[in-house]
């Protein structure tokens, strides 16, 4: 049947009996609506809405929206100017948690409900909360770029709170436990345990530490490099995690003698010699050190399950927070550019906060004025006294 001509766009009835709407796109092509309609009025209304959309400059080229999430997301990760370790984390999250579920869908077909279903599916499959949050943040960033590139009209990642990492708070080791672990590892790693706990240095920062970075006279360690381990076992020496990671960290005097003993016994001569290395002089690797760590936990009788090397850093951060250090001071020591982590440790120092409240309470008890009786109370007391006297 011939198409019904209109002032703008065309509507025609198909052999199936359904109605088709076509419109002239801003690119000069006559484009059909993505779906057909039962009634002609529905097709006409759709055309009117499309014309309004184009006049508002909200039109999205349907050819672009047909690009799959796998294609666009992979290109997004590849083209980002980010650290190689960050790129690996993005690739892992995208390949493991996104592509298998919604990777083959066209961008233009992914709606809010699509993302909600994907998010719920990850939780149902018992993926860790932290991993889900990272995958969601990545997906949100990918779609934000798709919006900027006019591939989709709006970002479908709109789940409130989904970007927040609600992973459980890591347990903090006691000082006694730290020294027990330090006594359980081979002697060449004792100082590694103590520095991780009492200077809050990360494993990668300790593994990259060189003799020239240790100043025993100033009681300081200069953090200037960090070691990252990539998939496939490749080792990468890079700048610390952020600009704030480049810092000088004071070493508690109580462990200076242990650090000096380590420098004498286990480090090769030369400013560039690694402070911590394996028995044959090789670089420390997380996966190689893991067995040493687990064996030490057993020997040190640290009964708590799932204790990680990184919990030594948590312990150091917690100890620093309990000294009453300011947020800025904690950020500087921890090597964080944002306040978020420092505030977490300040919030976590509940015991210290209770001590403060207890001291305030003692002052209140000593200095609080006694309540004065009101006139009414005085009259009541006086009246009672007179009655009894009478």
Shape: elongated
Low-confidence stretches: 380-390
Q: Write the CATH fold name of the largest domain.
A: hpI Integrase, Chain A
Largest sheet: 4 strands, antiparallel
**N- and C-termini, Cα separation:** 116 Å
Taken together, the total number of domains comes to 3
DSSP strand count: 9
Rg, alpha carbons = 33 Å
Q: How many alpha or pi helices?
A: 16
Question: What is the CATH class of the largest domain?
Answer: Mainly Alpha
Question: Taking all residues together, what is the mean pLDDT?
Answer: 86
Structural class: alpha+beta
- H/E series, N to C? EEEEHHHHHHHHHEEEEEHHHHHHH
Task: Quickly give the CATH architecture of the largest domain.
Answer: Orthogonal Bundle
Strand order of the largest sheet: 1-2-3-4
Helical content stands at 40-55%
CATH superfamily annotation of the largest domain? Intergrase catalytic core
Keywords for this entry:
16 helices; alpha+beta; 390 residues; hpI Integrase, Chain A; 3 domains; 9 strands
Task: Give the SSE layout.
Elements: E1 4-5, E2 10-13, E3 19-24, E4 30-32, H1 40-55, H2 62-65, H3 69-79, H4 84-102, H5 112-124, H6 129-148, H7 175-184, H8 190-198, H9 203-207, E5 214-215, E6 220-223, E7 226-229, E8 235-238, E9 247-250, H10 256-266, H11 286-299, H12 310-322, H13 327-334, H14 340-348, H15 350-367, H16 375-389
Antiparallel strand pairs: 1-2, 2-3, 3-4, 5-6, 6-9, 7-8
